[in-house]
Amino acid sequence: MTDAGGAVVESLGSTGNLDAWITGLRRDQWATRTNIRKVEIDHDHGGIVKLAPLADWTEDEVWDYIRTNDVPYNELYDKGYKSIGCAPCTRPVAEGQDPRAGRWWWETGAPKECGMHCALETGGFEHELAALLGASPAAISGAVRYLGQVGMISREREPGSRRDVYLVLDDIWYEVSVRQDQVLARWVSAARDGVEVLGPRTPAGKRVADSLDFFLFLEQEMPALLERWRAHRAARGT
Q1: What amino acid positions are annotated as catalytic residues?
Q2: Cα separation of 198 and 192, whole Å?
Q3: Highest mean pLDDT among 32-36, 43-47, 131-135
Q4: Model's pTM, two decimal places?
Q5: What spatial distance separates the first Cα and last Cα of the chain, rounded to whole Å?
Q6: Which class would CATH give 1-115?
Q7: How many CB atoms lie within 10 A of CB 14?
């Protein structure tokens, strides 16, 4: 057992020499793997083919095949290791313990997926949530993207981890309101341009002018509203 995961990922990045790669992923191994297909396009490693021929096998079926056909296997399996990866992130597990408990044991409650199979640059978090929540990847990806666009979450790389994390600010609604105030300024500018182009006395121009008046009202009231919120929050002692 070696610290080989990074080398494998680096090799996969050199797609000029590779058309496909074969994995031992199975759907019964972890929540993030329940929807894997036997043949996929690996967009995170240059669009090469990713094969998982054992996707629909169970652990018992794998071991039955090994014993029946005298297939060589890693001797660490006889020493309590149930899921084997790189040396720093692999240790044996107790009898009856979840096989994945021996991987990244310091990451309590985190989805335990290897960096070779995580979308390192294109949304591993979204794919993990899709598997864990039973929602479609497209729905999760869209929701996460929207929350990022409106400033409700920020994406950062956790020190010492292989995956990104999403952070929610402590005073999130205040921060979002401040950003919304900036958006209002753009709406005001666009509405003013619209009134000028359409003409203030045309039916369409009058409708845009009414929208402009509303945006100006919100722009004027927002600072006072935020001050009232700060005073209210201070009175609560939070």
Answers
A1: 114
A2: 10
A3: 32-36
A4: 0.45
A5: 50
A6: alpha beta
A7: 10
